[in-house]
Specification:
- The protein is mainly beta.
- Helix content is 7%, strand content 44%.
- It has helices at 37-40, 76-84, 199-202; strands at residues 26-33, 47-53, 59-71, 93-109, 114-125, 128-129, 139-142, 155-158, 168-173, 180-187, 194-196, 211-213, 215-228, 234-247.
- The chain has a 5-stranded antiparallel β-sheet, with no helix packed on it. The protein has a 3-stranded antiparallel β-sheet with strand order 9-10-11, with no helix packed on it. Strands 1-2 form a two-stranded antiparallel sheet.
- A hairpin with a 6-residue loop joins β10 (180-187) and β11.
- It starts with 25 loop residues before the first strand and ends in a 13-residue tail after the last strand.
Length: 260
């Protein structure tokens, strides 16, 4: 019967963050579909979700959940793409742990007319970087049409052409017609000379450093107090605190302009 207050990011302050709701205190969840604006206001045209909290919890409850990701890194297609690009194929991966602690304590008073409950939770998520997974260790692109007689691989490692050695448009000679045309070129990192650009080996692999799973920490705490004065009147107090942090990591951006 009460709207949850805004708790989203600074860029979406009108959104309610339901991660603040302690799962241990939820008694049930009621989902009402269809037009509910007559009862809940214009925002409930498509329906409303009611989180019914346990208002008479008594005792102490401590929960701990632990989970992790396990990936064998045995995908043949991804392995072939990495090997063709000269990128090391990662071994079997175990990581990306999720740890979730929660504490709740409550007590009834005044012959069951009132209840006071406090809670605290902590969630920690470990990051996973692309280079730890075979399908994310390089930036995957659809493969180019192979030369006659060459094997076809459905995907190939690629990435950004904003790479350390650059990509240039230069005049070159077509190997099939001997005509002069514009081709993509780069500077060979070993010889320092211009040569044709190879998308698989010359592109910057930004996928290896990007997070496949973000690092996150979340703290929540709060207290609920309610007292039934009579069958028609209930006095209550609700205090909720949440602190969320999430870190992303992406491949470094290229220098698109500079001044000597």
């Amino acid at each position: 019967g009460r709207r949850m207050q805004p708790g989203g990011s600074p860029y979406s302050v009108s959104s309610a963050d339901i991660n603040q709701i302690p799962a241990a205190m939820i008694e049930r969840v009621d989902v009402l579909t269809g037009g509910a604006s007559a009862t809940y206001g214009a925002d409930a045209v498509a329906g409303v979700v009611n989180f019914i909290m346990n208002s008479h919890f008594e005792g102490v409850k401590i929960d701990f959940d632990y989970g992790f990701n396990q990936h064998s890194n045995s995908n043949d297609i991804a392995k072939t793409a990495l090997e063709n690009a000269g990128i090391a194929v990662p071994g079997s991966f175990t990581g990306g742990q999720n740890r979730d602690w929660s504490f709740m304590a409550g007590s009834n008073f005044a012959d069951g007319k009132g209840n006071a409950t406090v809670y605290g939770t902590y969630l920690n998520t470990a990051p996973v970087a692309g280079y730890q997974l075979d399908y994310a260790a390089c930036t995957l692109n659809s493969a180019s049409t192979p030369a006659p007689g060459a094997p076809f691989d459905p995907i190939a490692c690629g990435g950004s052409s904003t790479s350390a050695t650059g990509r240039f448009r230069m005049f070159g000679t077509s190997p099939t017609t001997s005509s002069t045309r514009l081709v993509n070129g780069t500077i060979d990192k070993d010889t320092g000379l211009f040569r044709a650009y190879n998308r698989t080996t010359d592109s910057y692999n930004y996928g290896a450093l990007s997070y496949a799973q973000r690092k996150a920490d979340r703290y929540t705490a709060g207290a609920f107090l309610n007292y039934d004065v009579n069958d028609q009147v209930n006095v209550y107090s609700e205090t909720m605190f949440a602190l969320n942090s999430s870190s992303g990591q992406y491949g470094p951006s290229g220098a698109f302009a500079y001044v000597d």
